[in-house]
Amino acid sequence: MSKTVLTLLLLVIFSGILLSTDFFISSTEQPYIFGDFNGWQPIKMEKAAGSWWYAEIELKPGIYHYYLSTESGKRITDPFKNHQSEGTDILNIIEVKNPTDFSGISEGDFSFKIWDRDYFNPVKPGEFFITFPVVERLFNSTFLIFNGKKIKMNPLRNYDGYDYFRVHLQDIEKLNFYFEFSKGDKKLYFGANGLSNSTVTSFSISQEDLPVDYFDTPEWSKGALYYQIFPERFANGDPENDPEDSQNWYADPKNVNLGSNGFFGGDLQGVLNHLDYLEGLGIDAVYFNPIFESPSSHKYDTADYLKVDDNFGDYNLLKKLVSELNSMGKKVILDGVFNHTGDEFWAFQDVKEKGKESAYFDWYFVKGNKPRKYKGHAMNYIAWGGYGDMPKLNVLNPEVIAYINTILEKYNNAGIAGWRLDVAGEIKPEFWRSHFRPTLKELNKNALIVGEIWGDAKVYLQGDLFDSIMNYQFRDAVIEYVARAGHSARKFVNMTDYYLKRYPPQVLTSLWNMLDSHDTERFLTTVYSNEKLFKIAVGLQMTFIGSPVIYYGDEVGMTGGKDPDNRRPMPWKEELWNKSILNYYKKLITLRKEHPALSRGDYSVISTSNSLLVYKREMGNDVLVIIANPGDKAERLSGITGNHKELLTGEILEMEGLSIPPESFMIFEAANE
Q1: Tally of CB atoms within 10 A around 206
Q2: What backbone phi and psi angles, to 5 degrees, belong to 367?
Q3: How far apart are CA 199 and CA 189, in angstroms?
Q4: Closest by CA position to 232, among listed 258, 265, 260, 259
Q5: Would you list the DSSP string of 339-350?
Q6: Which of 301, 422, 467, 635 is catalytic?
Q7: pLDDT band at residue 16 under the 50/70/90 scheme
Q8: How far apart are the C-alpha atoms of 572 and 317, rounded to whole Å?
Q9: Tell me, what DSSP letter sits at residue 381?
């Protein structure tokens, strides 16, 4: 077949295809696109951030004319596309090219939306991440041409047929960039005017007016070490406020009621009495499960958000506790249960009594006149899990919004540093985006917002909803690696890479890395009380990228099955503690404080082989090598040479060919010569 015939054939094939074409404009008013590609009918553009708007239109290959206009009739020239005079007006011109023009390559082989944080990610003025996806194995190399400087982009991941490349830009003063690719001896460019083999228009925008908002997590939260306290079971400091029928703190867990209607007398004074313990452990922040008025021991069925439960103390005692912790340099995070109230909440009680005549009827989702339940299950109203004692709250009701704002203001005044949000994925994002986040950040721009999200949380971490999440994906990966047969290091890396390479990189050190919580069995129980495997899991938690969260009592070897067995009272008799585990925690926490690489440094995998995992944490000259082997066989280390000091034992070892024992965990730094 001749080249001419082949070209004609390709033109016939491609002439019917539609190619996604991007339009991107700055305007203080809502703009519309008018073009000859749709009979000059207005196409409404979508809002990005700042003064920026965008539209994606599918067009056949060809040359098109268009203009942009606001609702008031003001004409706008698209600075990123060619244009021509049309009388007293200006028309823009766009050429949508056939893939044949670029040796079979089209704009469909690329994906870059400057209004999408996945691609253009502003952290703070002067710091940006730029990511560019290209159809896999399409080019020899990918470069960012930034302010005239050529920067090679680093491979990030391969996903869904695309190779992703990323570059981290810091200390920059202006934004002017496009992309360059090489395929054999040919070069292509991608800029604000799309794909080109010659003329390219840079993305040129001001750092003061961006199409994506700046987003960074509070500085204090990066790599912070949290301690989770379930108040009813941590410590009883004031027997005078104990609930009736409170049980013996040290009774056999098999013979007591650990459920929602079982009480032991834990309270805020108990926490105050053990501040020296928390200080000795070395934690940076405390996360409290709910403390508000509630009939249950778990307090997730709130009766009054503006009142501290009287079995825990009162608001003044809370302020004292927060003040004491803050003076020790420790932040306080409260549990916010805003998806639902308890059925004893005053507004729901009014609805139960008055039905549709209640002023609070629209605070809930009730069908019919009055809410009804049967054997504890909600019959005609929406409730969390269907449980009748947890009716779902209508958080988009303006009165509910105002009430929650009052809650935020009150506890902000008490000195807390943020909120962990219960079942956050069950609440409409509009509430978090338009109401909760703006209100809280206005009260305290450094407040932390952590959502309870059990799976993929990417959509929640785009700067408009949460700062962090309870990172159960980390826990899942540790369980598969440490507690399951096979102990595949490669699987651990694949499971953690899934979120590490998808989430905005600025959130990674603030993710709450847990081994267990009040909603899961204790990790020591998960590994059948195998102390060596437990220590490997703790070692991973304390050295992996993110913020470790210790569930109270794990550090002294507490065990427990699923809820409520995981909520046993904290043993304060030291003879009941596993001192080996406690000392191990303290040693790891000390290392985190001595080595900033462990809390804020970069993370990279060195090697995976069978059950052997080797990774690096690095921050400037602080470089640590982490080695784990939860398998039942020794593994031979490769790829690392020279003498290194093992920080848990102080032993100096030659790394080349080192045999890593089964069920072991080590932290190395290069030994001084």
Answers
A1: 11
A2: -100, 130
A3: 8
A4: 265
A5: SB--TTSHHHHH
A6: 422
A7: low
A8: 22
A9: B
Does residue 602 carry a catalytic annotation? no
Residue 49: name the closest of 208, 216, 201 by CA.
208
Cα–Cα distance measured from residue 90 to residue 463, given in angstroms and rounded to the nearest whole number: 37
Active site residue 452: yes
* Residue spans of alpha helices (H) in 254-367: 268-272, 275-281, 315-327, 346-354
Q: Would you state the structure tokens that stand for residue 258, as one six-digit string?
A: 């650990």
Amino acid symbol at 570: M
Q: How many helices (H) and strands (E) does the chain have?
A: 15, 39
pLDDT of residue 622: 97
User: Whole-angstrom Cα distance, residue 471 to residue 546?
Assistant: 9
pLDDT 10s digits, 296-332: 999 999 999 999 999 999 999 999 999 999 999 999 9
Place of tokens 């509910």: 400
For 97, the token pair is 């090219």
Pairing of strands 82-86, 141-146: unpaired
Q: Which residues contact 443 (CB under 8 A, 6 or more apart)?
A: 408, 409, 412
Residues 653 and 88: their CA atoms lie apart, in Å, by: 79
**Cα angle for residues 567, 572, 577 (degrees, 5° grid):** 85
Q: For residue 574, how many other CB atoms are within 10 A of its CB?
A: 9
Q: What are 86's strand-pairing partners?
A: 89
pLDDT digits (tens, 9 = 90+) for 405-463: 999 999 999 999 999 999 999 999 999 999 999 999 999 999 999 999 999 999 999 99
Pick left, alpha or beta for residue 586 (phi over 0 → left; psi -120 to 50 → alpha; otherwise beta).
alpha
Closest of 246, 229, 339, 207 to residue 281, by C-alpha = 229
The overall longest dimension of the chain from CA atoms, in Å, is 96
Q: Where are the beta strands (DSSP E) in 300-437?
A: 304-308, 331-336, 373-374, 377-378, 418-421
* Residue 175: strand pairing partners: 205
- Whole-angstrom distance, CA of residue 260 vs CA of residue 514: 23
HEC string of 322-336 equals HHHHHHCCCEEEEEE
The three-class DSSP label of residue 566 is helix
Q: Label residues 28-55 b or e (16+ Cβ within 10 Å = b).
A: eeebbbbbebeeeeebebeebbbebbbb
Q: What is the pLDDT of residues 499-555, one digit of tens each?
A: 999 999 999 999 999 999 999 999 999 999 999 999 999 999 999 999 999 999 999
Q: Which amino acid is at 558?
A: M
Which is catalytic among the residues 267, 301, 452, 516?
Answer: 452
Nearest alpha carbon to residue 128 among 165, 171, 163: 171
257: region left, alpha or beta (phi > 0 left; psi from -120 to 50 alpha): beta
- pLDDT > 70: what percent of the chain? 97
Confidence band, pLDDT 50/70/90 cuts, at residue 87: confident
The four Cα atoms 316, 319, 324, 328 give a dihedral, to 10 degrees, of 180
- What count of other Cβ atoms lies within 10 Å of the Cβ of residue 138? 15
The sign of the dihedral angle between the CA atoms of 463, 468, 473, 477 is positive
Strands 331-336 and 304-308: unpaired
